[in-house]
Design goal:
Strand content: 5-15%
Distance between the termini: 37 Å
Radius of gyration: 20 Å
Number of strands: 5
Organism: Streptomyces albidoflavus
Shape: globular
Largest sheet: 3 strands, antiparallel
Strand order of the largest sheet: 2-4-3
Keywords: DNA-binding, Transcription, Transcription regulation
Helix content: 40-55%
Protein name: Helix-turn-helix transcriptional regulator
Pfam families: HTH_20
Amino acid sequence: MPSPSEPGATPRHTAPSEHKVRTLDPRSLRGLAHPLRMRLFRALRESGPATASQLAVRLDESSGATSYHLRQLAAYGFVEDAPEHGKGRERWWRATSQGIRLEPDRLNLADPVQRGAVDVLMHEVADNHTEELSTWLGTRHEWPTAWQEAYDLSDYSYRLTPAQAVELRERAGELLESFRAYEAQNADAEDAAPYRVHLHGFPRDTSPRHPDSTEEPS
């Protein structure tokens, strides 16, 4: 795809990764395709360096579990020590990149192990998107009016070939990436906030009797 591409918000304290996006290969895919590891990786990307204990509280997990899976993430190169934050015996971790990219042509999806890892990864990303959107819908009344008018919840339908779908995805990605130019100038803007964009695109079967069909059966 390169999806799921999950860059996330770029906090000011993530200089080591410089919004680096890592393309997964079979080995790194296996290392990341675990729900808790993906949540840990996401938390470090979005909120900056933390200890296993801090992440355990944030994610409602045991510190033993977060410590173990952080070490696994480190073994596969997704996180690293952040010694400048450490005090005494505390071990701080930071993400080594600000996103991941999955490109199926680099994988052997006929291999059930790799296919299973891709399924775990994609469903975790989708679950996270659902959670983020639900959180916004449930709390939007707490935001200033300007932000309540600045969200989008839209869908579009086309009839495209696979090549045209790839073109749409890539052109949309180019437009979204162009908005990174605003991040530096908005670093100290009081009315700026992390703004999350989800981009989903997929084919559907709308033939009669299919669950997605909007036609009434005859």
